[in-house]
User: Fold this.
Amino acid sequence: MRVLFIAAEMAPFAKTGGLGDVVGSLPAVLRTKGIDARALIPLHGPIKAQFADRLEHVLTFQFSRRSGTADIHIYATEQDGVPVYFLESWPFFGEGDSIYTDLNWDRERFVFFAQAAMATVWELGQGRIRDERWMPDVLHVHDWHTALIPFLLREARYQPGWENVASVLTIHNMAYQGWDAGGYLWMAGVPGRHDPNLVYQDRTDNLLGIGIAYADKLNTVSPRHAIELHYPRFGEGLEGLIWVRDSDLVGILNGLDMKRFNPATDPALEQNYDWHTFREKRIENKRALQYEFGLEPLDDAPIIGIVSRLVEQKGMDFAADGLRWVLAETGAQLVVLGTGEPSIEERMRQLEWDFGWKAKAYIGYSEPLAQRIYAGADMILVPSRYEPCGLTQMIAMRYGALPVVRETGGLADTVVNYDNGPADQGTGFVFLWEEPEAVRHTLRWAIDTYRYRRDAWQRMQERAMRTDWSWERPVQQYIELYERALYAVGRGPVNIAQLHRRFGSG
Assistant:
């Protein structure tokens, strides 16, 4: 089976969040299962600047549409055994210093990218790149940036060569949809979108809505979030389309790159450790973290860590108020790493100004520093209003920092609440309400457990560190999803029993 990932991001080349992590890791795992997975992303300006020495120019062709003809330049490299193609075309891609710009320009850019990506797929199928005829069986697209492609594929199926190509759309974040793109679609010559559900719900100009209506199969990145998307609180106006496509939607939890996120080998840490040795060795990372942030070197002071975008979606507005109480009432320390909305950045700075001896905020991002926080903090706060999957809590558990999370999406699917007893179950602390008091009281609960039930705390740490967050199970579920998508376009029946024998019951 041949699968082409088409997305706006792919780690390590371009990444702003979990989308980039998934596209950067899942294709490599698929290839270990015999799937010929490849990826196509825009050649963003930062990629061209940082990875120029790795890029090989493999094709130039002209692409025509209503608004004119553009030169398309395709570059290629390999990442973890995965062939990766980059699409450059002035003025849309190849320049600038960021992945995204303002919404108006981004809608035009990604409408163009969807069309140009389809043209690139055709060139691949004709053997124009390295004389290899490679036509994908499945186009796996991600979020609104590429959600137009399933519609373009439906239109292309009337032409020879496209009849049996299937599409899968992964929804990473429903809050971003590519709204009101009708003018850009008209300028690009995209035909009318006449799906009755789109028309009835007035979503014919919504790029993500178009993808939901026309993709052969859909998924989001956790089972809990697949349920949440059916309701206005999480569906963001597209819940009606989700209900219509309910039988085609599944939730597949994101996996974690267990080699990349491994405290036993992570070069950023002061002291490496694993679940066998964390009781003796992990403390060195805590001391190093306190020194790095200028905190008092107190072994018994629990450290609360935050590694997050500082935005309302992540719950950082009400969390800041809860943290203020915790810092005033306890001996806990706080380290913050992230950037986001100026008002929330300012609130985190204010915590540092008011509690400078026990609270520090680094406004920015550094991956090595993030790893050191995971390894040195005792708990990691993730109070998200919604979280389709989230990797922060998984990484935290991998490093032995117990997560304190709100019960939503992937956080609810991955963190088992402490039983407030012998810790024969539990890998963290879970609260429900989006309120400062919920943050305050749950952190107080975690702090008291750390101080007065240290054996229970360490048993939770061990359980969390031993949990398998790898892609092994999710990759099996994706393969089954691809099989179902191919069945939907007439590529033979899906033998579920055979899939389960081959890949496990998942």
